């Protein structure tokens, strides 16, 4: 649902070179995840299939830190916006059954939505409706933890208005898929939960996949966490808010089965699948493309509370990959790259982590507000809980970990800050880019 953005939009592009896939070195990949787990960098689960056969799965960390409950292969995670792929499949099932049409407008369903007479089902699916995404509002996190009725959600969406004229450009909007959820419930006369079960979960025997309700650890559902010098429990979105935009619970093992079935034509027709995979301004319908070297995968990412997720399918190799986390203190994209590198026999390193002792350092020498002539961004450095936090313009504060003298990092976004206290400057490094900041 709401993706954490630190300083710059996190890139989804993966790097690598195409070669013939070799047998997967599971021992090295296990060591990679061991390193992440031992250094509190990742809590979650991963699965990979080739030719419909599971070739790797691994789960690390805790599903419930407070009760010291270790996660296992049956631990269920909230998968956030991967739910949109499920919702899109249901829409195409409705189209195949003659209950909907792609070029049908939403006026008969939501007459109060601005431009409802021009917005089509297709516009909702490929994010070209112009409908404002309610998750972009600053107040969203304040009300999203409470149950919301359909009437309340529609009012929130209607009141949000339109950000641009329909079909003039593409812009990601969770509001689109909440409305699609209600349309599906109207035309079928059944709940979204029942539709997911009937058309996807039951046919594929996905026993760990369903629409979430109140988070229930007794059912093997995981809590989620932020890392702030230790795992801290994240807020819990009420699932009546995201519904078909982000309310599904699953496991990576179920998600690779789902992926294999979708792209082999077991859920919708070939014609419908081609529509889903057809891109316009970078958006498919419930799908995006993710390049890895010379390969191109189709899939989706997700994020809700402290959970994050990704699934992707590589058609030429018949490989499905899925990963979900409930706690992250590292760059998620880097973990994906490592897994796919292992799958496609590419080199990757097992990371080494060091913590620099700053117990005797006067942290006040780093604090202050820093500005840059290169980019319109300010960074505020504060001393907090025996450490430092940074906050960039318009973003949430995040903890900095000391890695060397005057050098701090925030691994989830791949950010490194190199301080020069004498000159009162910072060099910000992120994915090969460098920016100079000076204290104001």
UniProtKB/TrEMBL annotation:
Q: Which residues form the Beta-lactamase-related domain?
A: 30-331
Q: Which SUPFAM superfamilies match?
A: beta-lactamase/transpeptidase-like
Does the entry feature the keyword Hydrolase, yes or no?
yes
Q: Which UniProt keywords apply?
A: Hydrolase, Signal
Keyword Zinc-finger assigned: no
Q: Which Pfam families match?
A: Beta-lactamase
Q: Which GO terms describe its molecular function?
A: hydrolase activity
Q: Which residues form a coiled coil?
A: none
Question: Which InterPro entries is this protein grouped with?
Answer: AmpC-like (IPR050491), Beta-lactam-related (IPR001466), Beta-lactam/transpept-like (IPR012338)
Report the domain of life of the source organism. Bacteria
Signal sequence: where? Answer: 1-21
Mind telling me which Gene3D superfamilies this protein's record contains?
Answer: DD-peptidase/beta-lactamase superfamily (3.40.710.10)
Tell me the protein's name: Serine hydrolase domain-containing protein
Origin organism of this chain? Wandonia haliotis
């Amino acid at each position: 649902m709401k993706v954490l953005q630190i300083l710059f939009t996190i890139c989804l592009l993966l790097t690598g070179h195409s070669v013939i896939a070799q047998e997967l070195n599971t021992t090295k990949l296990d060591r990679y995840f061991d390193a992440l787990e031992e250094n509190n960098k990742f809590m979650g689960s991963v699965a990979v299939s080739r030719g419909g056969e599971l070739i790797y799965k691994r789960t690390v960390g805790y599903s419930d830190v407070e009760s010291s409950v270790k996660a296992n292969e049956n631990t269920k995670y909230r998968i956030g916006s991967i739910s949109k792929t499920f919702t899109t499949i249901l829409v195409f099932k409705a189209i195949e059954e003659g209950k909907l049409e792609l070029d049908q407008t939403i006026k008969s369903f939501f007459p109060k939505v601005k431009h409802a007479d021009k917005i089509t089902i297709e516009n909702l699916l490929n994010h070209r409706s112009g409908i404002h995404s309610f998750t972009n509002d600053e107040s969203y996190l304040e009300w999203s933890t409470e149950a919301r009725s359909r009437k309340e959600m529609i009012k929130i969406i209607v009141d949000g208005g339109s950000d641009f004229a329909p079909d003039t450009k593409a812009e990601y909007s969770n509001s689109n898929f909440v409305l699609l959820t209600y349309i599906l419930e109207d035309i079928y006369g059944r709940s979204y939960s029942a539709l997911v079960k009937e058309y996807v979960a039951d046919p594929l025997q996905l026993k760990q996949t369903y629409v979430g309700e109140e988070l229930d650890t007794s059912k093997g559902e995981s809590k989620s966490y932020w890392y702030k010098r230790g795992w801290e429990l994240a807020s819990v979105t009420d699932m009546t808010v995201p519904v078909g935009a982000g309310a599904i619970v699953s496991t990576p093992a179920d998600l690779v089965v789902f992926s294999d079935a979708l792209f082999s034509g077991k859920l919708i027709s070939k014609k419908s699948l081609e529509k889903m995979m057809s891109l316009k301004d970078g958006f498919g319908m419930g799908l995006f493309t993710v390049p890895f070297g010379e390969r191109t995968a189709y899939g989706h990412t997700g994020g809700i509370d402290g959970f994050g997720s990704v699934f992707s399918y590589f058609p030429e190799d018949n490989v499905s990959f899925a990963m979900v986390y409930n706690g992250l203190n590292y760059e998620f994209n880097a973990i994906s790259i490592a897994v796919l590198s292992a799958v496609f026999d590419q080199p990757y390193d097992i990371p080494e982590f060091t913590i620099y002792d700053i117990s005797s350092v006067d942290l006040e020498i780093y604090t202050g507000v820093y500005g840059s002539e290169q980019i319109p961004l300010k960074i505020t450095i504060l001393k907090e809980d025996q450490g430092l936090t940074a906050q960039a313009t318009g973003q949430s504060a995040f903890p900095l970990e000391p890695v060397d003298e005057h050098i701090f990092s925030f691994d989830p976004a791949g950010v490194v800050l190199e301080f020069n206290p004498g000159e009162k400057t910072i060099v910000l490094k992120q994915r090969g880019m460098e920016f100079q900041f000076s204290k104001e």
